[in-house]
Structure formats: structure tokens, C-alpha cells
Amino acid sequence: MAALFGLFLFSFFACIARAQVPANQTFKFVNEGELGPYIVEYDGDYRMLGVFAAPFQLGFYNTTPNAFTLALRMGLTRSESLFRWVWEANRGNPVGENATLVFGRDGNLLLAHADGRVAWQTNTANKGVVGLELLPTGNMVLYDSKGNFVWQSFDYPTDTLLVGQSLKAGKTSKLVSRASEKENKDGAYSLVMEPKGVVLYYKSKSPKPLLYYRFPETYSNEKLPVDQLTFNCGPERGDGYAYPMTVEYFVANSSVGGFSPARPKYNSTLSFLRLGIDGNVRVYTYDDNVDWGAWEMTFRLFDGDQYWEESQCHLPERCGSFGICEESQCVACPSSHGLSGWSKTCAPEKLTSCEAKSFHYYKLEGVDHFSSQYTIGSATNEVDCGKKCTSDCKCLGYFYNRDSSRCWIAYDLKTLTKVANSTHVGYIKAPNH
Ligand SMILES: *[C@@H]1O[C@H](CO)[C@@H](O)[C@H](O)[C@H]1NC(C)=O
Ligand SMILES: *[C@@H]1O[C@H](CO)[C@@H](O)[C@H](O)[C@H]1NC(C)=O
Ligand SMILES: *[C@@H]1O[C@H](CO)[C@@H](O)[C@H](O)[C@H]1NC(C)=O
Ligand SMILES: *[C@@H]1O[C@H](CO)[C@@H](O)[C@H](O)[C@H]1NC(C)=O
Ligand SMILES: *[C@@H]1O[C@H](CO)[C@@H](O)[C@H](O)[C@H]1NC(C)=O
Question: Per mean pLDDT, which of 57-61, 72-76, 77-81, 401-405 is the most reliable?
């Protein structure tokens, strides 16, 4: 059997010699605080896990003690504060000390816990893989003898798209937010490529995730659904002075539309688009021409300044578990005793039981639920809308638009948006003490 080569190791002390090591190599991950999380044990020696292609590097990181994620980071200098993690392998399944990362002779790249349980793998055993390479675009690839990519990290985004990376039908067709700064597991938000374009969902207590945004440009050919969405950036034709970013839709490799989140006036090739912990979508750009503050937020969907960008009030959790939002600020905490000033502790009153005699409703005028803007609600009269909520244990309140005679049942209250029109009303359940 032909020897397989692939993982390139740089010596920890001299990051120049590019050593090829046999594919059947086990890197024992050592959690050595002093040496940093990129150090692996190899041949009884401590070395850097040397999968590197400037400005990207493969390594391990953690946000809670001894729970490590294998990930790719981006940044040009060695200063920790300048790095951003842009891809991760084992979200939701962190490894601890003595975990092993094995690039097997069979072509499989496998991360295992110390006890041997598989934490993550590429599932590429016996598929002709002959090597592994990290490309300068940030795409980590396993290739066969003809140079075809058998596996690529670009096909498995989590919450981030790098320039040139796509969501693809049949592969990964959505981004899922991270739960919190500390917890690296799936959060409540997703950015989904659908047949007509991109939408944002919030996973609440309702049976179906709630739509909280639809991107401006949609495409409408029922027979040929969008099958790819690509984040890109490149110099403008002509002067090449500005670098427009694009989110482009494709059907069978042909572009059918899209939109441009930002147009920085410098080389912004080193950018990434991320669905954040708070459900906002941002683009961050790295400009290595400055010594300080090399990262810049070049786009923010909620509270941006383009005509199609949205107020922060439309982020489901802008006001935490409960609050009224106006012009991006949380301005009031509603309760059955009236409105008071908002703080992070603002929460709906706890119901004692779901029997109709144990609660009543209080009314809020001039508010919308965050889901009212992009879901049409049901066509019913106000009384029946109330009955629907009363007979549903999980319903915490209902929202009614008297102009359009539309009804929304809420399983989560979260952020309510203040609207000028008092024909938009909300009724919130409160306990009868
Ligand atoms: C490396 O190869 C040897 C012999 O082919 C095998 O016994 C061993 O289990 C392999 N190690 C790993 C970590 O795959
Ligand atoms: C890791 O390996 C070292 C050396 O074999 C051992 O002393 C240590 O207990 C191991 N740690 C865990 C968490 O398995
Ligand atoms: C799209 O392009 C890829 C790569 O060039 C090719 O493999 C694939 O068959 C194309 N798909 C269609 C539907 O044309
Ligand atoms: C823009 O930046 C990228 C990444 O650093 C680099 O590869 C490319 O050559 C740059 N383009 C120009 C025109 O300088
Ligand atoms: C409320 O909405 C109705 C119907 O859309 C409209 O006729 C009315 O002018 C609005 N009132 C205010 C105060 O905006």
C-alpha cells in the first residue's frame, strides 16, 4: 500500500521546516497551559499542531476548563487578541486532556476522547484520500491522488462563512448560532438557505421555529429552487478601489440574484460572515495595514444603516425574557400592575396553573410580537383569538391586529416592539392571586 502523507508539522521552536509525517500518526492533545492549546505530543516531543496557511491555522481552543474544540482560526499576528475562530469540528462534543487527533492510513481524520470514543470524524475512510491541506482561503481539504477534494471544511460551516464559502443544498444548508460565549453548543438561531433565498429562524417554545427576518432579495422560480448561497468579496471591476461583499444565490451553478452587505474601500478579502449568539448577522473584516484594531465590523443586519436593515427591536431576545422595545432600546417592563422601567430581570409573571379560572389577561396597546412582522398569523376575530390562547396551556399571550384581523399566539413573549398604531394589541396572561 502506498504510504500516505499529509499532516505537516512545524517544529514548535522553528516554524520553518516543513516536515512530512506518516498519515497513520496520532497526535496526543496535551492541555499544557504554558504552551497554549495548539501543542500536541508527537514522538515524545511537544510540537505545534502545524496545519497552517497564513492567516489560518488549525488548533484547539476552550471557553470552559478542559472542554476543547478542534477549530480553524484566522489572524496574522501571534497576539491572541487578534485571532478569531472561524470554523469548528466538534461543536457540542468537546474533548479533554489526552484526546487524540488521528489522520489514519485509511484517509479518515478522527478526533477521539481519551477513552477512545469518537468525538468527530470526516468519515472519509477508504475513499482514496492521500493528503490533508489547509488552503490560504481557510478551507481545510482532504484530497485524493487526482487532487479532487474528497472532504472540505467549507462544506461544514457552523455559524460562520468565510469568503468563497457556501451553503449548499444536500450539504450544510444553514448556519446555527452558538449557545453562549461559554457554551459551544447549538444556540436558538439559524440562518437557513431556502428555495427562495435566506431566512432567519428563532427556535422558541412554539412547535415550529419562528421566522424573524427574511433577506431583502428573494428569487421566485418554484421549479428551480436556490441550491447554493455563497459569501464573496472581491475588487470592483474598473478601479478596484472598493471591495464589495456579496451574498449570491445560485441555481445549478448559475447566479440568480443576491445582495451586497457591505462595500469597504480597502482590500477586505479577509472577512467572515457570522450568525451571532444574539441572532444578529455581522460581517467582520481584517485589515493588516493597521497595528491596532485590525478587526472591523463592516456589516450588522439589525441596527445597520442600509434601507433594508432592521431595528434591533426585531431581535427576539433584544429585551431578554420580556420587555417593550422602541428604537433599539428596551423601554418598559410590562406587568399586570402596569409598565415599569426595563431591566435584565424583567420577566413574565409566573402562572400557577393553566386552568382558565387561575389567570386573567392584561392588555398592551400599540405593540407587536417579534414574530408578527414575518409571519402572517391566523385570520380570526379578536374573541376567538383569545379563546385559542385560553385553551392552550403553553400560550403565554396573544397579539391581535385590528386592521388586518390577524391573530398571533405566543409561546414565548421575549421582545415586544412598540408601534405607533394602537390597533395592534397584545393580551398577556397573569395569575389571579
Ligand atoms: C497505525 O497503523 C498500525 C499498523 O498498520 C495499526 O496497528 C495502528 O492501530 C494504527 N494506529 C492508528 C492510531 O491508527
Ligand atoms: C492523561 O495522560 C496522562 C499520562 O498518561 C495521565 O497521567 C493523565 O491522568 C491522563 N489524563 C486523563 C484525563 O485521562
Ligand atoms: C456545478 O459545478 C460543479 C463543479 O464545476 C460540477 O461538478 C457540477 O456538476 C455542476 N452542477 C450542475 C448542476 O451543473
Ligand atoms: C487582498 O488580500 C488578499 C488576502 O490577504 C490577497 O491575497 C490579495 O492579493 C489582495 N489583493 C490585492 C489586490 O492586493
Ligand atoms: C393605523 O393603521 C391604519 C390601517 O393600516 C391606518 O389607516 C391608520 O392611519 C394608522 N394609524 C396610525 C396612528 O398610524
Answer: 401-405
